[in-house]
Amino acid sequence: MDIDQLIRENAQAVADYENSENVENQQQDLQDRQALRRVAGLSTELQDVTDAEYRQLRLEKVVLVGVWTEGSAKDAENSLKELAALAETAGSEVMEGLIQRRDKPDPATFIGSGKVTEVREAVVATGADTVVCDGELSPAQLRTLEQKVKVKVIDRTALILDIFAQHAKSREGKAQVELAQMSYMLPRLRGWGDSLSRQAGGIGGRGPGETKIETDRRRINDKMSKLRREIKEMKVSRDTKRSERRRNNIPSVAIAGYTNAGKSSLLNHLTGAGVLVENALFATLDPTVRKTQTTDGRIYTLVDTVGFVRHLPHELVEAFKSTLEEVSEADLIVHVVDGSHPDPMEQIRAVRQVIDEIGGGEIMEIIAINKADVAQPEVVMELLRKESNAYAISARTGYGVETLVKAVESALPKPKVEIKAVIPFNRGDLVSAVHERGEIISEEYLPEGTKMHAMVDGALARKIELL
Q1: Pairing, β 439-446 against β 449-456
Q2: Which H or E run contains 79?
Q3: Is the separation of the CB atoms in 129 and 76 below 8 Å?
Q4: Which homologous superfamily is 58-161 in?
Q5: Which residues contact 12 (CB under 8 A, 6 or more apart)?
Q6: What is the pLDDT of residue 368?
Q7: 103: which of 13, 19, 129, 445 is 20 to 30 A away, CA to CA?
Q8: At what angle do helices 212-247 and 321-328 cross, to 10 degrees?
């Protein structure tokens, strides 16, 4: 049998094994995620409002409440639909949704006093045990609203943090989520005041000592300091890998976009990465870096990042900074947009806002309008007209992906140093490096070595000059 055929068969066998392993890993991830289900019918109605902050967040039947302050009625409805999708992702059943038109949220209860009565009636009628507000509530608003509706009240930020806590898998991801949750919880702690004070006893120790709430705050601050140190240590590994790629002049392409837009599906289609794909918000949190190459052999990396969402909690942006740096330090951003979403332009705006926050606003961007196979054609055409560097694709069927890949390859940073050299046959490593990191103009095999005319980076050009 021909040796080349044996090599091809061996390569095919390895590829088949890796593909089957990826499928098994995805199935295992889905099984793990679906293995823990909340039990319906367990009442979480408050006996005492002070219990609320010290009980684990457990959502079963929820009523959604939104305040419409700007934009059209359709915008307000889309925002509440997204909140419903977040609530369902967290494992709850949405019973009812209410929207109030106001110039600004009520400073005491988020919604007006009349609407609070309606919410209480909806809670009683549906048997709901949680109210979810579409916005970030102040500690005072949370406390007052809980007193009036008599059930647990949480806001959009707490809901997103809960989803992140469920979906975090890596050690770094879990630490980042825990830090974000503690940052959110710290100003919202409540206690009984001086009745929980401790007294040291003896001369100089009488009188109110450290209250229970002060103890809790101190412990949380200590824990947050420890988590920051751990995340900083874990960040070193990520920075080392990133600097190694930069040292070798390997371009980086970040796949960013709204949550559930299809980023992981696109990465899997391009590289066979085997990343978990699920029709749910924030299905993947941990960034995945995969190596791939252009049609002419240049190597570059693709990075799948955490999904963005409207009003992404500030605590999460801060905690996930080391992860989001994969976007801010990329050479190119492929911004994936869900073409089948009711308001894709709002998704684009929300993602760009977060990218600006993390310092990636100046990076070149390619828009990939995903799910073109199920999106309304007029919506896709409008996006293509509005965005100059946009391409319609379907990561599921593969439609348009080849065109997108060509656009990505042409947008990658080009090597700037021209070389014309004959590289000896015993320096095959340099020939390989030119193929991986450079742009070949011509290549010819001579008796004394490989004659190459190419564009390469400065470091590689210096190595070739020293031959």
Answers
A1: antiparallel
A2: helix 73-89
A3: no
A4: GTPase HflX, N-terminal domain (3.40.50.11060)
A5: none
A6: 94
A7: 129
A8: 30
User: Where is 442: in which H helix or E strand?
Assistant: strand 439-446
CA geometry: angle at 214 spanning 209 and 219, to 5°? Answer: 120
pLDDT at residue 18, rounded to an integer: 56
Extended beta strands in 339-437, E state = 365-370, 390-392, 417-423
Tokens representing residue 449 in the block: 């070595």
Give the number of C-alpha atoms closer than 13 A to the C-alpha of residue 68, restricted to the C-beta side.
Answer: 15
Nearest to 161 by CA among 181, 176, 136, 138: 181
Domains of the chain, residue spans: 58-161, 171-190+212-246, 248-409, 415-464
Instruction: Please tell me the distance from the alpha carbon of residue 144 to that of residue 137, in angstroms, as a whole number.
Output: 11
Residue 169's closest CA among 33, 7, 40, 12? 33
Ordered mean pLDDT values, 10 residues apiece, the chain (467 residues): 62 60 55 50 44 47 89 84 87 89 88 89 91 89 90 89 81 85 83 47 54 80 91 80 72 87 84 59 69 82 82 76 78 92 89 87 92 91 92 91 91 81 87 81 87 80 79
Distance, in Å, from the CA atom of 11 to the CA atom of 456, rounded to the nearest integer, reads 30
Residue 262, number of CB atoms within 10 A of its CB: 26
Say which residue the tokens 């809790």 belong to. Answer: 216
Other C-beta atoms closer than 10 Å to the C-beta of 321 total 15
